What we know:
The protein is of the alpha/beta class. Helix content is 40%, strand content 15%.
Amino acid sequence: MSVDKPERELYPDIEPYTTEHLKVSEIHHIYIEQCGNRSGKPVLYVHGGPGGGTTPRDRRFFDPEVYRIILFDQRGSGKSTPAAELEDNTTWDLVADMEKIRVHFNIDRWVVFGGSWGSTLSLAYAETHPDRVKALVLRGIYAIRRCERNWIYQDGASIIFPDKWEDFIKPIPKAERGEMINAYYRHLTSDNKESRLQAAKAWSTWEMVISRLLIDEEMLNRTNNDDWTLGFARLEWLVIPYFSHYAAHGGFFESDGQVLNEVDKIRHIPCTIVQGRYDVVCPPETAWLLHKKWPEAEFYMVPDAGHSNREPGTTARLVYASDKYKTL
């Protein structure tokens, strides 16, 4: 295990050379883009959430001269359609979609790169199709265990940020605070504009507060702008029901922590695990448990980072990992 912070920047901005919507079911079409080297070594970027989406920045973790960089928005997320559709939307549907992308592009094996919920999905995919994965890069390990879900929105992060937690729960009546995710969903989708705005500001602020080691005050100040906050909230209206859907079903796994318990299936695959020491969204205990079950994998605990892949030490480690596997 290494705790040093190397100097390393993202690769320059790059535009896709193809974009498309692939039909993966009678309902769902998923957005896929490719950039970098058309005949290069394939790498799949798996975004977080559940219910997030990809961004142009996500392309920049990879050497575009070497990698054929593939990004996709999971069912109901980002540019995939229909938006926020939860029917036929489970972990195993998403795993199947990843395999459909591989077959669609006639790829034999690829590197899989995922963070946060993307680490969960990457592990689930690799454990289902271990012969199709050349290497894994995993960041901010999340196994969607009950204790992890409760930590963020019920009882855990609240202990570290008691002042900010008071602001988070303020829009929610005391009688509803036993199930904060469900309560926020109700308020964010309320017909009452003022109720929606108050909930949006509180939710947006909480998300920003806990995502980094040092709070980004510039981003935090944006929540004072009603138009910006409602715009952010519109995204959250998609993410919250999506997250609630997965949380209510335990990630659609047969057992709590299944992706950790089935690591023996993939211990032969090269892997790098990157974890922020002060990650409050995905606490380091889960990454440490994965490391203990998978001692062959490289493990980096970034000493001055939280959850975000935008923090310099985490960014550097991720780029170094993708550079390492471009020789496979």
